[in-house]
Structure formats: C-alpha cells, structure tokens
What we know:
Blueprint: E1 12-18, E2 24-30, E3 37-43, E4 47-49, E5 55-57, H1 60-70, H2 78-93, E6 99-101, H3 102-116, H4 118-128, H5 134-156
Parallel strand pairs: 4-6
Antiparallel strand pairs: 1-2, 2-3, 4-5
Amino acid sequence: MHCPFCRHSDSRVIDSRTSDDGLSIRRRRQCPECGGRFSTIETASLNVIKRSGVIESFSREKVMSGVRKACQGRPVTEADLAMLAQAVEESVRQTGVSQIDTNEIGLAILGPLRELDEIAYLRFASVYQAFETLDDFDDAIALLRADHAERASRQDA
C-alpha cells in the first residue's frame, strides 16, 4: 500500500475494525516515512463467471436489477430488494469460493425471493429453472401450496 502523501511503498497498520455489514475491514494506517495517517477499506473479492465465460466483479445492483424485473407491479420496495441482494451476497460469500457461476447466483436468489413475494418468485424461477411448459408452472405452484399447508399445520399444532 503506497502512502497517498509521499508515495512511500510501505505503511503500518495502526487499527483494524470490521465494517457494520461485516463484509469489509477498515484499517487505519501510518506511513513510516512521512508519518501521514490514512484509512483503507479491504474486501474479499467475489467474481462472477458469466455464461459467455467473461469474469466480472459481483454486483448487488445487478442482483437487484434482475429481481426488480420479476417484481414489476408487485408490492416490493427498493429497501426489500436491497435486503434481498445483501442476503444473496452473504449466502454466496459463505460458500467460501472466490468465483461463482451466474446460474448459482440465480439459484441463491430463489429462496429469499420466495419469502419476499411468491409471484415474483414464480416469474424469476421460470427463467432460472428453465420452465418450458405449463406443467413446470403447475409443479412449482404445487410445491408452494404444499409448503403453505405444512406451515399452516405447524401453526395449528
């Protein structure tokens, strides 16, 4: 890490703290040459392998954009989308891999989206699970209904 003041090629870490979201570390540094102090924010890189083979950095905004399309006309707020994107990023980071396929991200979206809005879930699932017929929709709806019935029976017990 180069000093932003004198461009010396070394610095000493004075203090380290985890950020509020737990995904980055803020380090307070001091240059041994000029004594200048500065802060850095460090995050573990997470790259996405697209279908074309291109690799790019993970973006919560892209997750939100893709889900926003499925949520069009549904009672889902931007704050809901931001929370979903954060949950997806956290679950993807917990896998411990530094590169992940776009399809895996799509699948990671399904669970939180199902909890957020079932219609948006069906819209999104139809793309990521490659629904081809009405039977595919029927099967997905049957699973949702079975889940509702199971939850209702647990609440009654």
